[in-house]
Design goal:
Elements lengths: L24 H22 L9 E3 L2 E3 L5 H21 L5 H26 L11 H20 L1
Antiparallel strand pairs: 1-2
Length: 152
């Protein structure tokens, strides 16, 4: 008699290709980091009334409290990145398109923070955003993966 496992969907099936196997190891590592980051961002928004000083930063946007405009923007970005990471890890059909949007958005924000903001705000200095390097490769990889991902 064959036993049916409660964890059958998590077991590897030899006859089916996994979408997750299309992702390189560095994207898998970032996927886990952003899954955790998205969960922490939700926790920070929930507990924001009890936090007096918390430093938030992504793509050069900085905030010292989650209930400021920039703090809320950072939290929303982290939650979106966490959602994309969830979609990639659990092999959702929409994940590559969301990842492409995430990459384009990240590159755009980095360029704005590098080129436009230092000239409009005197307290923010020009910095080279090194996040552009992995974002570029992430965007290129997700554009290559997208058609294959949809067909699996």
């Amino acid at each position: 008699m064959e036993e049916i496992s409660a964890f059958e969907e998590f077991e590897k099936k030899d006859n089916l290709a996994r979408r997750r196997s299309l992702l390189p190891i560095w994207i898998k590592i970032f996927t886990w980091l952003f899954l955790i980051g998205g969960a922490v961002a939700i926790g920070i928004l929930i507990c924001g009334f009890f936090l007096t000083n918390i430093n938030l930063e992504i793509y050069g946007i900085q905030a010292s409290h989650p209930y400021t405009l920039t703090g809320f923007l950072i939290s929303i970005l982290l939650i979106y990145k966490g959602t994309v990471a969830y979609g990639l890890w659990f092999e959702q059909k929409w994940a590559p398109q969301a990842a492409i949007i995430d990459g384009i958005m990240g590159i755009a924000i980095c360029i704005i923070m590098m080129i436009i903001i230092p000239f409009t705000h005197s307290d923010i200095n020009f910095t080279i955003r090194l996040e552009l390097i992995p974002l570029y490769f992430y965007l290129q990889k997700m554009q290559k993966i997208k058609p294959i991902w949809k067909n699996i």
